[in-house]
Specification:
The chain has 360 residues and is an alpha/beta fold. The protein has 8 helices and 16 strands. A hairpin with a 2-residue loop joins strand 4 and strand 5. Helix 1 crosses helix 8. It starts with a strand and ends with a helix. The relative contact order is 0.18.
Length: 360
């Protein structure tokens, strides 16, 4: 290990949440460093499936201080988003250190200790600027499937070229599952999509209606109505966190028209094949697990993780831990907290808190 480097604030994560936090810390002239595990800023987006486009139009895809450089009603690709984040960091000269995967966060005396490879940092404040979606979640019985079946988690799926000829089971009926199911169907596969119906946005986001309603939905409902401060927001949070949100781009009728068969939950394995909860056994050549993620915060060696590994916090501020914060978590304050247009508000609040505590 190298000698510990002392810095006032360490921001863990160089995606939109971490960069937005860095922007506000820099505006307050507070010293900080941003650590990112990837070798290039934006790689968390570049490594997602090839055809991915954002659900929000470009007018909502900028983070504080720099609007997204594209037509306001266009829907950027994953690579355009990645390049934007890279340009953002350069534009504001944010001190991002890439290739710095954090393996441990603990506390000694009056400082936090952050280990990233051979480098150790000591800090008064640490902002964990990462989403709740870190470690792929796959059911334990997946190991019982016939080895001839190709298995991929949505994190590792790139395109239909990874799939064997034959039918495809997409396990998970959320936004990722529905988009991958549509793509596999267009590539000529017979597709079965398993999971509960999460509902869908009742209009086409790319159409005229979408242009009118999306500002109301994203800026109004998702950002100001569905928050932890409102009864309807608290109710929605319980549902969204456990069941997932509605389909945004793909509609149920799209799946039906594409020949995607909707079935219930995958409950286990029988004779090497996926077994549905109704007892039906599926003879498929491929399984794409769109079954979500574990929070992936086991490297935090502080007593802050609740059941399921989710951190305990109040709008990103951890009680009993003066100096530990979160930005980018699912529904941290509002449904928009994990969305690009929503991270700025949470990041500003955390930067303000750090500035206040530092001044005090």
């Amino acid at each position: 290990m190298k000698k510990a480097e002392r810095v006032q604030t360490v921001v863990i994560g160089g995606g939109q949440a971490g960069l937005a936090t860095g922007y506000y810390l820099a505006r307050r002239d507070l010293p900080f460093v941003i650590l990112d595990a990837h070798h290039r800023i934006g790689d968390a987006w570049r490594e997602r499936w090839d055809s991915l486009r954002l659900f929000t139009p470009a007018r909502f895809d900028g983070i504080p201080g720099y609007p997204f450089p594209a037509a306001s009603h266009s829907f950027p690709t994953k690579n355009e988003m990645a390049d934007y984040l890279e340009a953002y960091a350069a534009r504001f000269a944010l001190p991002v250190r890439t290739g710095a995967r954090v393996s441990r966060l603990c506390r000694t005396d009056h400082r936090y200790v952050v280990a990233a490879g051979e480098q150790v940092y000591e800090a008064e404040h640490v902002v964990v600027a990462m989403s709740s979606f870190q470690e792929p979640k796959v059911p334990p019985f997946a190991t019982e499937l016939d080895p001839a079946i190709v298995q991929l988690h949505s994190r590792d799926y790139r395109n239909p070229g990874q799939l064997r000829p034959g039918s495809v089971l997409v396990a998970g009926a959320g936004n990722s599952g529905s988009e991958i199911a549509m793509e596999a169907s267009r590539a000529g596969h017979q597709v079965v999509m398993a999971g509960r119906d999460t509902g869908s946005v009742p209009f086409r986001i790319e159409g005229t209606t979408g242009r009118v309603l999306l500002p109301l939905v994203f800026r109004g409902v998702f950002h100001h109505v569905l928050t932890v401060d409102t009864p309807v927001g608290r109710k929605a949070r319980r549902k969204v966190v456990t069941q997932g949100g509605p389909l945004i781009r793909v509609k149920p009728r799209d799946l039906s028209a594409a020949g995607v068969e909707r079935v219930g939950r995958v409950a286990g394995v029988r004779e090497g094949r996926p077994l549905l909860e109704d007892g039906r056994r599926l003879d498929v050549a491929n399984v794409v697990w769109c079954t979500g993620y574990h929070p992936g915060f086991s490297w935090i060696e502080r007593p802050i993780l609740g059941p399921g590994g989710e951190p305990t916090h109040e709008r990103g501020i951890v009680p009993g831990e003066p100096g530990l914060y979160f930005v980018g978590l699912h529904f941290l304050y509002a449904l928009s907290s994990t969305m690009i247009h929503g991270v700025g508000r949470d990041a500003k609040r955390i930067a303000d808190t750090i500035a206040l505590r530092t001044a005090g």
